[in-house]
Write the structure tokens for this entry.
Amino acid sequence: MMLTGDSEQVTKAVAAELGLDDYFAEVLPDQKAAKIREVKQCGLSVAMVGDGVNDAPALVEAA
């Protein structure tokens, strides 16, 4: 599964290339932490890579 702020079209192509079953596209920085909480509540592990200060809340949530 992948969560990204990238467009639906780009995300779908990358997910297909990587063989991912599911993805969340066009997620705004302030929505990422909530999505990570949702995924963790399903019992899944999360790895987060961020490229900006706006990703800090999601990085904390993924820890």
